[in-house]
Amino acid sequence: MAGIGVLGGTFDPIHLGHLRSAWDVADALSLDAMQFVPSYLPVHRDTPQASVDQRLAMVRLAIADMPNWSVSECEIRRGGPSYTVDTLTLLRNQVGLDVPIWLLLGSDAFEGFVRWHRWQEILTLANLAVMVRAGVPPVGCIETQRLLLDGQGELASDCAGQIKLVPVTVLGISATQIREAVREGHAPHFLVMPAVSDYIRQQGLYQKDK
Ligand code: ATP
Description:
This protein is α/β, with parallel strands linked by helices. It has one domain (4-202): HUPs (Rossmann fold), CATH 3.40.50.620. 39% of the residues lie in helices and 15% in strands. A 6-stranded parallel sheet has the order 3-2-1-4-5-6, sandwiched between helices. β5, α7 (142-150) and β6 (163-167) form a beta-alpha-beta unit. The longest helix has 13 residues, at 16-28. The protein is globular and about 55 Å long. It starts with a strand and ends in a 7-residue tail after the last helix. Residues 9-12, 17-18, 21, 106, 109, 171, 173-176 line the site of adenosine-5'-triphosphate.
């Protein structure tokens, strides 16, 4: 098996920036499957935002045409702050030891990776696919740079411990921008999948007075 990709996020809502980068990584690494992991979010009182079920529904709609792409409810069902190491432990137990798992990370996230909870353990569970703009390597502290050079060195296997920089199409889209646009009465066409745009309208998501 070539491997399974894992992309975590709030996905409030999932947009073409997420989808295109996931596709670029899946394509570059010939991944067999991609798992989207929406994170648990505390309810913010001041921002109209989608519920857990609505965020899950939007991810499902967005990836409906991709046969081997799926959504994991594990962080949402676990509730509270969720650690990537727990999510990956669960997935590793499900898929066994012989399947490469690739955790997709934006450049910014990678730069802070060495401050993540039990980050060394993450590298025993998964490889990292660091999504970069073509020709722009991530910067960061010395520890991050060393990690980039060495990966886990001799500990690395096909299944975990490797770090690869994967160039992705950079689309200047953010969920924040989409929520604001909808709030101001603009449709999010061509920023999200059409089914997600329809869903946002039907559910009255991100509107001013909600
Ligand atoms: P928000 O604006 O609400 O902070 P977001 O658009 O950044 O949301 P998240 O759900 O927080 O989306 O992002 C999940 C993951 O997707 C993160 O790793 C983030 O780096 C990545 N990501 C977000 N937007 C893009 C984009 N336009 N292109 C590529 N990756 C993206």
